[in-house]
Amino acid sequence: MLRTALRNVFAHKARLLMTVLAVLLGVAFVSGTLVFTSTISDAYQKSSEKGFSNVDLALEPSGGKESGRGAPGKQTRLSQATLDKARDLPGASTVTGSVSGFAALAGKDGKLVGEGWQSTGANYYAGPGEKGKDARYPMSEGRAPQRGGEIALDQKTAERTGYKVGDTARLSIDGPVRKDRVVGVFTTDDGNVAAGGTLVLFDTSTAQRLFSAPGQYDQVTLEAAAGTSQAELKSQAQKILPDGAEAVTGKKLASEQSKAIEKSMSGMQTGMLVFAGISLFVGIFIIANTFTMLVTQRTKELALLRAVGASRRQVTRSVLIEALVVGTVAAVAGLAAGVGIGAALRSLMGEIGATVPDGPLVVDSSAVVTSLVTGIVVTVLAAWLPARRAAKIPPVAAMSSVHATATVRSLVVRNSIGALFAAAGTALVLYAATLDSAGEGDLPMGLGAAVLLIGMFVLTPLLSRPVIAAAAPLMRVFGVSGKLARQNSVRNPRRTAATASALMIGLTLITGMTVIAGSVQEAIDKMATQSFKADYTISMANFTPLAPQVEKKLERDGQITASSPMRNSPARVGKEVEYMTGVNGETIGELTDLDFTSGSFDGLTGDKVVVDKKTADSRKWKVGSAFPVVYEDGKKGTLTVSGVYKGNEMLQGMLLDTGTLDPHMERITSMQVMVKTADGASESAKSSLEKALGNNPAILVQDREDLSESIAEIFTLMLNMLYGLLAMAVIVAVLGVVNTLAMSVFERSQEIGMLRAIGLERRGVKRMVRLESLVISLFGGVLGIGLGVFFGWSAGELIASSLPQYSLVVPWERIGLFLALAAAVGMLAALWPARRAAKLNMLAAIKSE
Amino acid sequence: MTTTYTGVDATAPAPAGVAAARATDLTKVYGQGETKVVALDHVSVEFRKAEFTAIMGPSGSGKSTLMHCMAGLDTVSGGSALIGGTDLTKLKDKKLTQLRRDRIGFIFQAYNLLPTLNALENITLPLDIAGQKPDKAWLDRVIETVGLSGRLKHRPSELSGGQQQRVAVARALASRPEIIFGDEPTGNLDSRSGAEVLGFLRNSVRELGQTIVMVTHDPVAASYADRVIFLADGRIVDDMFGPTAESVLERMKSLDSRVRTS
């Protein structure tokens, strides 16, 4: 039986081609994902290991160095005294203090270099007496920065921007522009730099002034003396630790970072694998279609095998062996293609600026095994039903001289099951849509969607007739070709359905996501623009805090009629930490448009505070309620509620006057500044504002339109990524249509020959095949878009419960585009089968057997 | 009978007709070198209007090839094939297709109906392809002649073999082609259905003035024709007018034995 199976594979090479391609693409997607993510994560891993190579122990505020501004009243930094004590530890050889923060660097063209959140500034720690060298940053050119006004740049950034030693560079830390002289260029193992970020070094005291406070460090790292272990060093250091700080060994730091890298990579990996799974799922339809047809074609041959004594199991097995061979070939080829994709993706990421650390391509055994197993299992599973059908062919079929026609089995059972599933799924989705919170609704919604989708798969053969019949008037335009195409497309409803379903899945997802994203974007846009009356908001490009100088500068600007900063400071209320927002109590009413349920912004000074309804409800506050509070600096106070408003994503929590909040803030900074100008938003007002702020690359001046645009940008980017990932599923669906058409042309060669003989031109034959393809693709497209809109609507109902501004936006333009896409899929898929049909040898086709 | 037969027998009683189709020195060669097969060897023949001609010959004699070449279904290696005054060998595929559509009718052995169309739609298919409206009166007459009036809405799968072939005959007649070619039109039918179909064909020649050329290997079928042409080894070896089943059978036997001994 093995030999028969192998012979069959070779005999049907061409017909198996599409199947192989479909599996190959899916497997390539899987292995590409695995190779890419493990390569990247390996590279990051190595670079982070390097980064910790000369750290044996780190002293830092409890909970990591990021939590410097954590709980109120517990501000911990490491002082010069701690560093000096650390140096005296018997087990320490080198001790380094470091301090870092955001530092935007402008290129020679005045624009921000790199992405905002990867722009870092840090200190060059030259040791006691400023005489030593910082081992982390070996200078390749020039010298280290020694005083204010001097900086050093990392080599990659220097190359990218063209800055050389002696040039003056423009920088911004928290708003105002600084001009500093580049005195050196250094190389570094810093992970952030390896990943494409910029690093600017200052001398230690300048860096402390900019990022913390004089004599204060974020972190102190120690290198152990020879013969001292990390653990020994740690126990020595415990004695000198100030309150609220901890000592962490280098090993632990490295392993924590490696865990964090793995975690972020595995999220990305899962996301990509989901899409790979979708395209493999779509591939199943093609595989099943192909094997069904191969079995039908070989009815006589298989019956003969049965007649000469092959058992049912042997027949099934022979078909499955065929599938196994096909699956293996496709999986191996897919794996190879996937390794290529992984390598290509990495260099692509380099191209678009997101530099990843260098490292070898990692193809680990788990990637190989997963890819191969997936490809083979999917193929064999998809061939299972056709194989079982093959075994049911009665031996007598070998004897009958009648040309074996496909038996049309009743669809009654199938339709009943499908209707049941579709109805249950719809009901569940509708039920979920009425639920109030996303938390309860998620599960029934997902389950309902899955059940409905399955129901639709099962029902597509039934749906194919009425839906395609509806296209009849359109097809009439194309004369006899159109009529024949329409009828041909419903001749084998199961096959048409399987082909269309493959396309349906892709378009359902694409449409659903487009609807949801479009609606959410609209809602957020409404929220962002409606709750503000300010003409402009001013913030840092990466939304890090803005220095108070900025608002002072703005206050001096004549065209501004009202402005208010938005400070942000943690405070303890009861047992919990709440973030308080400091605003200008006099002007805030002019700058925002909040919906007050009681009270107002009036007289927001002193101990007055307005809170959003959610907070007020949960704490059972009303206008007039007073509550105690512990500010950031640990001082206690009492606040009185003077208004309750409906919060939204842009503005929520407690708002109080800056006059009340500022004295308690350690560093007075704002998240953004809102301004209103005399003549409203205009290009000239904007550019004069930008000018007033020193044309600072790190500062963003946005009017409401800019805000909408930047929101739209985020959504567009997200949607484009999803489209890109789903494109694979669509490509596989195209292969499915090609496959089905090729089968149809092959099966109907006699008919096509006759049509040619009685006078249908080649063009007419081509058109017939093309139209059939178009009908099948549009059928799948219409179903997919319909389902997608339905899912989009129902998911939206769920979202609306937590996003009051949400309302369904049906993107008609996009839907038109998707229909056009389905049509294009049809035309593209028909290219080759139509050519084949037109070239068919008439005589061979009509000669009787 | 070893001399090459060329052209029309001048001594035969020719009806006062003009040629509907004519072949001159028609040659068809398959393959090259060692595997070269000469299917038609300088065949010249003329089919007259309103005449029913049968082409006979043993398997491999080239009778089907002759029909395919004359009907513009196959290319020729040499010589010319004319339908009316048009030389098919000079036509490109597009023109040739149009000529088949507008001027030639076909009846195949395996009926070759489209299973998705009903009987009437199958009959008017060539007209639909040409984008023409059928001549209602003519169509009714044809349908009545082949006796399908009650079955026009049936699909081919709901018709018997004889009925299907009658649909095929009606399809060939519907567009009033200059000439109809039949490839073993009764090959798949039982004798009664076969006789029916052949009767229609003969009637359409007698009553409707249709020209028909039919390839067959059945002497009884050939006896319905006005004239029988015998082919062997790619050459015309005899031409018989007013054939009977017996005379045709006699001739075939002699051809068969000749082929076997050669």
Account of the 3D structure:
The complex is a heterodimer of chains A (849) and B (262). With 849 residues, chain A is an alpha+beta fold. Chain A contains 27 helices and 24 strands. The radius of gyration of chain A is 34 Å and the shape is globular. The two termini of chain A are 29 Å apart. Chain B has 262 residues and is α/β, with parallel strands linked by helices. Chain B has a single domain (19-261), classed as Rossmann fold. In chain B, a hairpin with a 2-residue loop joins strand 4 and strand 5 (86-87). In chain B, helix 5 runs antiparallel to helix 6. The A-B interface holds A 479-480, 483-484, 487-488, 491, 750-751, 754-764, 842-843, 846-848 and B 64, 68, 71, 73-74, 93-94, 97-98, 100-102, 104-106, 108-110, 112, 114-117, 125-126, 128-131, 171, 183-184, 187-188. Chain A: It is found in: Cell membrane.
What spatial form of chain A do the alpha-carbon principal axes imply? globular
Portion of residues in beta strands of chain B equals: 15-25%
Helix content of chain A: 55-70%
Q: What is the approximate shape of chain B?
A: globular
Distance between the termini of chain B: 13 Å
- Computed over alpha carbons, the radius of gyration of chain B is 18 Å
Give the rounded overall mean pLDDT of chain A.
Answer: 83
| CATH homologous superfamily label of chain B | P-loop containing nucleotide triphosphate hydrolases
Number of strands of chain A: 24
Keywords (chain A): Cell membrane, Membrane, Transmembrane, Transmembrane helix
Domain MacB-like periplasmic core (chain A): 17-239, 496-691
Organism (chain A): Streptomyces daqingensis
Pfam family, one (chain A): FtsX
